[in-house]
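Input.
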Amino acid sequence: MNKVELAYYELGSKSDRPIDIKKAWLRENRAHFCCLACADVYPKSGPLDPIVVDARGGHSQFHLPLEFVSKIRYEIIRDDLLAVLDPDACEYLNLGVLLDETGKQIPNYHTAQAKIAVLLRGGMESSNNGVCNRCGRRRYWPMPHGHGYLLRSTFQEGVPILRVQVGNFAVNQAIRDRIVAAGLARGMYFIKRPVLDEPEDGLPVDLKFYEKV
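Output.
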């Protein structure tokens, strides 16, 4: 039987629309960022390459502490939220910059991807469609909808921030509390994700976010 002693909190932006990427730039560069077979963003081992966004509406379209871009599923994190994560979590993030169509950097925001990716697991109804034969991402989705948990054996104890499906961050209790204390929680939502010892989906414990192909 699983005994819940630990939980992480998945973060999501309350933005009602993604930040649009410049279409001409996307056509030329999407294959560099994303697997064209499954559309997942490739994991990076260092700084993220710049992304060119469509800023015709002005930089004022960036207004929440956590945003996201269309087509390339990176999180966009504002500097004040980044400061709340530092120093505990920033070493577990790869960061990059956003540019407008003139090549000017969008101020106060960075793209971000957590270095450690783990699967949210679900119940017996979960969808497990094997592994992408191009990038190795496991095509798994936890079900029923809204049900998801982490497995203790899939990451090291003490890791403050993780990447879960669709690129979202999952943070530990201490970081969640700091976000709330800093008054930044109004622009995002939290979903509690328990950390269990055994899976409830009937599948092996050691399913990885990425497998070798």
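Residues 52 and 99 are 5 Å apart (CA to CA).
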